[in-house]
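Hey, resending since the last one bounced:
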Amino acid sequence: MPLRATKDREILRLAVPAFLALVAEPAFLLADSAIVGHLGTPQLAGLGVAGAVLTTAVSLCVFLAYGTTASVARKIGAGNLHGAISAGIDGIWLAVAIGVPVTFTTVLATPQLVGLFDASGPASRQAELYLRTAAFGAVPLLVMLAATGILRGLQDTRTPLMVAVVGNLANVGLNVGFVYGLDLGITGSALGTVVAQVGSAVALLVVVNRAAVRHGVARRPSTAGVRRAGSAGVPLLLRTLTLRISLLLMTYGAATLGEADLAAMQLAMTLWTFLAFTLDAIAIAAQALTGRYLGAGDTAGTRAITRRMLRWGWATGLVTGAGLALLAPALGGLFTPDDQVRGLLTGVLLVAAAAQPLAGIVFVLDGILIGAGDGRYLAWAGLLVLAIFAPAAWVAVTWGGTLVWLWTAFAIAFMGGRGVVLLARERGTAWMTVG
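The structure tokens again:
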């Protein structure tokens, strides 16, 4: 029992602040959806399309946080603090190098990107308005990912929490002021988000710079270090690409069903993301702790902390699932006055609630393998799951013809498939590379 209590304290020390920081962002994204949703159904549907494009662009670069967390944590476990901070700074420079072309490509290709979803004319116009402005948040957002990865690797999840809460409170205030106070419509929501992202990125850079000065680490870019950070992140990039394609298939499928279905998908995916970030708190702890234990060469400790985190993931999923099921009938009214959208949302949320316990296990397993640097397996596993889910989604839309069937395919084929391939890997020892 004392050993178990020690492991629990170690997990909670990282997971609780990470949970609050992770929940802060989707909580205020929910507020953004409510702000835009009350402008009208075309605006909400447009936000769904633009959000899918932006989330894809940013998620493909999530290795900036995940890869940096694992790299920094492993160096911490090996006692190399100077090298840990240096590796993190290289990740920040990589974020800038990626973010600049992403921004300009998104702005220039906005009509083509929105057109991929075959949404209605009014929804597409709203999506273009949002996307052209929101694209300028790519650089600060990627810098935030990399800087947060440094702090998580250093076992500091409190600083990202503070920045997330303050930044997202500012985001909501700015959005309300720009959307309704200045009457900028959906463009105001995008502008408020960009301003908040810039402020949050600056705050995190100040903290990282102080740590670098304190430990005598250079802040200028190292070509070799940036190249290492990029090459190490390639498997995670491929893994994330397969995840994003699956989620884009969800948005595309909803768009083919109709504008109301697309609007309901936007709300459902936002709520799913909110709960995913809640569950991901344990996964963040898994990344940091797995990297540290393996960096120190402690395979027995790695196995023990892994099993304990899986129990936490399962239990957390049960709680979030029960809560979502209870609230499902009432949540739609918070975001839209459209009765059709609210009716569609209730059924989808019940399916999402049933998938929460499985999601809790999947997210923790993902964090464990990322922390272990097992990106190559995650990339191949992602391709396999995509090959299973894509035809299942097509069947759900073509033959089922409803949003509930599409989400059922997502829960069974996508989340279930991920659970199978990740559990199969965790039960072996090939991922436990020490040092």
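The longest helix spans residues 259-295.

Sorry for the duplicate.
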